[in-house]
Design brief:
Blueprint: H1 7-17, E1 25-31, E2 34-39, H2 54-73, E3 80-88, E4 98-107, E5 111-120, E6 128-135
Antiparallel strand pairs: 1-2, 2-4, 3-6, 4-5, 5-6
Length: 141
């Protein structure tokens, strides 16, 4: 399978379609059926005590799979999450960006299924694991 959107095209799509969150995410690399995305962590992402919030990690997982799917099918703004399960496995390092490695396992006409491992930047052990299913809108003729 070949990519339909490059790293730069995906980043431009995010900036155009989702300007409210695009600055929070950087696409570090993209390949067929997989992507690496960095989430820039700041004060707005922290819970009391300095722990990265669960919603921040969920957003990273969700955006990562979304971008991995778009890289394969092209710009489809209306692809949507239909299911997500996330396991928070250990506390992320404080004041450190998060890096997500997403893989698509099934890319059909209607559904895509994948998983995401999230690490603190520079860390070996994952801090969260997510499994997501996306609905792909029908192609317009």
């Amino acid at each position: 399978m070949q990519l339909k959107m490059s790293r730069d095209e995906l980043q431009a799509f995010m900036e155009s379609e989702f300007p409210q969150v695009a600055p929070d995410f950087e696409i570090a690399g993209v390949a067929p059926m997989q992507i690496t995305v960095r989430s820039r962590i700041g004060d707005k992402n922290l819970r009391p005590g300095g722990t990265v919030s669960g919603p921040t990690m969920f957003a990273l997982a969700d955006v990562s799979i979304y971008l991995a799917i778009l890289a394969m099918i092209g710009p489809q703004a209306l692809a949507v999450t239909t299911n997500c399960s996330i396991d928070f496995m250990r506390r992320p390092a404080a004041n450190t960006d998060l890096v997500a490695h997403a893989r698509i396992h099934k890319l059909g006409r209607v559904l895509a299924v994948g998983d995401v491992l999230i690490h603190s930047e520079g860390g070996d052990a994952p801090v969260a694991r997510a499994s997501l299913t996306y609905s792909i809108p029908p192609k317009r003729s």
